[in-house]
DNA sequence: TTTAAATTTGACCAATTAGTTAAACTATTT
DNA sequence: AAATAGTTTAACTAATTGGTCAAATTTAAA
C-alpha cells in the first residue's frame, strides 16, 4: 500500500461529491480508501477540514479557467468558441463537481472565505471590464448588437454548466434515460452552444 | 393555534429546501413549526415520508408549467417569450426550489418513482415532438435556422434556471454581493433571455 | 355532563456518528 | 541492534438523531 494520505483524499472526493457534506460519512470515506477511520483524523484533523480541502480543490477546478480564457488573445467570437468547448470538456470529465459546489455554496454562502478569493481575483483581473471591452469593440465594428457583459457572461456559463446539473431530468425527459444519447447530446453542445451564443449577438 | 398539520408541512418545506434531506433535522422542523417533535411523526410517519411530500410538491411546481406553455397557441417566438417570462417569475418566488430538486435528484436519481410520472407525462404530451414541429414550421417559413429541439429546449431551461442555482457565485463575481443589483439582473432576464434565444435562431 | 376519540407532549430508546486514545506495528535513524 | 519517530488499528466515548410510547390535554360525540 502506498500513500494513504492521497488515497484518503481521493476517497473523500468521491464520497463528498456524490453525497454532499451532510450525506457523507467518515466511515464510508475510510472504507472507500480501504483504511481505518482513525487514519482520516490522523491526516486531516476533522470532517470539516477534510471537506474544506476537497471543496477548495473542486472550486478551483471550476473557476480559474474562466479568467484564463478571457485574458487570452483573439476576437470575441473566437474566445467564446474556445471557452465553451474547453469548459464543457472539463466538466465532462468531472460532471458532478458543479452540482457539488453549487449545493454547498447555496447551503451557506457565508462561511466560505474562498468565495472572497475568487471574487477579489475576478475583480483584480477585471473580468467583467475585459468582457465589456470586447463587446464594445465588436459593437463599434457593427459586428454584434449591444448586450450587457453580465447577461452575456451568465448566458455562456448557464448554457455550459446547466445540462450537467440537470442531467437526471434531461436524460429522462429528452432521451428516455438513455445514457449514450445524453452523452452525444453533451458532445454536440461543445460546438452547438458557441454557435447559439454567437448567432444570438451577431448582426 | 390552527392546523398544525399544515404548519408542519410549511416548516418542513423551509428546512428541507434550505438544508436538503441530509442536512435537515426533525427537531429543527418541529421548532420551526412551533410544536413537539413527536407530532411530526403523528402526522407524517417518518422523515422519509415527510420529505417525499415536500419533494413531490416542489417537483410538481417546477415542471408542469413547461408542458402547459408548449401546448398553448401562438408562434414559436411568442411561446418562447411567454415561457421565459412566466418561468423566471415562478422561480423568482421560490428561488431555492430548483437547487433543492436538482440536488436531491442527483444524489439518487433511481429511488424516485415520481420522475417516471414526469417523464411519461412529457412523452404523452409529446413535448419534444411539438417543439420539433414548431421549429419545423418556422424553418419552412424561412424565419429561423434549423436547430434540434433537444438543444433548444435545454438552452431555454438552462438560461432560465441556472442564474438562480448559481446565485451565490454570480452575485459575488458580477455584482459585488449586492442583492439589489442581482435582483435587477434577474428582473431584466425576463425579457433579455427571450430576446437572446430568438435572436439566436432567427434568420 | 360523561364518554370516547383525536391531538399534543415529555421522557425515553436504540442506532449512528465524529472524534479520541492508547496500544501495536513499521520504517528510519543512530 | 536499539532507540526513535511515524503510521495504523481496535476499542471506546460523548453527542446527536430519528423514532416510540404512555400519559396528559383538548375536542367532539352521546
Describe the structure.
2 copies of one chain form a homodimer. The first copy, chain A, is built from 12 helices and no strands. The N and C termini of chain A lie far apart (61 Å). By secondary structure, the first copy, chain A, is mostly helical. At the A-B interface, α1, α7, α8, α10 and α11 of A face α1, α7, α8, α10 and α11 of B. The structure holds a DNA duplex (30 and 30 nucleotides).
Greatest contact between two chains: A-B, 58 and 57 residues
End-to-end distance of chain A: 61 Å
Give, in order, the helices and strands of chain A. HHHHHHHHHHHH
- Uncertain segments of chain A of ≥5 residues (pLDDT<50)? none
- Give the CATH H-level superfamily of the largest domain in chain A: Tetracycline Repressor, domain 2
Q: Got a strand count of chain A?
A: 0
Look up the CATH topology of the largest domain in chain A.
Tetracycline Repressor, domain 2
Shape field of chain A: globular
Give the amount of beta strand of chain A, in percent: under 5%
- Report the sheet with the most strands of chain A, covering strand number, pairing sense and barrel closure: none
Q: Oligomeric form of this entry?
A: homodimer
Secondary structure blueprint with pairings:
2 copies of one chain form a homodimer.
Chain A (H helix, E strand, L loop, with lengths): L3 H20 L2 H8 L3 H7 L3 H16 L1 H6 L6 H18 L3 H11 L5 H12 L2 H15 L7 H17 L1 H9 L3 H23 L2
Helix pairs in contact in A: 1-2, 1-4, 1-7, 2-3, 4-7, 6-10, 6-12, 10-12
The structure holds a DNA duplex (30 and 30 nucleotides).
Amino acid at each position: 500500500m502506498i500513500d494513504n494520505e492521497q488515497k484518503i483524499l481521493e476517497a473523500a472526493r468521491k464520497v463528498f461529491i456524490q453525497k454532499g457534506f451532510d450525506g457523507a460519512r467518515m466511515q464510508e470515506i475510510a472504507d472507500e480508501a480501504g483504511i481505518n477511520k482513525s487514519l482520516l483524523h490522523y491526516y486531516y484533523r476533522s470532517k470539516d477540514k477534510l471537506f474544506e480541502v476537497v471543496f477548495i480543490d473542486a472550486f478551483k477546478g471550476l473557476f480559474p479557467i474562466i479568467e484564463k480564457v478571457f485574458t487570452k488573445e483573439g476576437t470575441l467570437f473566437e474566445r467564446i468558441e474556445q471557452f465553451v468547448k474547453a469548459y464543457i470538456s472539463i466538466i465532462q470529465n468531472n460532471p458532478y463537481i458543479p452540482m457539488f459546489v453549487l449545493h454547498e455554496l447555496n447551503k451557506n454562502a457565508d462561511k466560505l472565505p474562498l468565495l472572497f478569493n475568487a471574487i477579489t481575483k475576478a475583480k483584480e483581473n477585471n473580468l467583467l471590464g475585459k468582457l465589456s471591452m470586447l463587446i464594445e469593440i465588436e459593437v463599434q465594428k457593427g459586428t454584434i448588437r449591444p448586450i450587457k457583459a453580465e447577461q452575456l457572461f451568465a448566458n455562456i456559463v448557464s448554457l455550459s454548466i446547466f445540462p450537467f446539473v440537470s442531467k437526471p431530468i434531461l436524460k429522462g425527459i429528452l432521451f428516455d434515460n438513455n445514457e449514450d444519447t445524453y452523452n452525444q447530446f453533451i458532445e454536440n453542445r461543445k460546438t452547438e452552444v458557441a454557435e447559439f451564443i454567437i448567432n444570438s449577438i451577431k448582426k
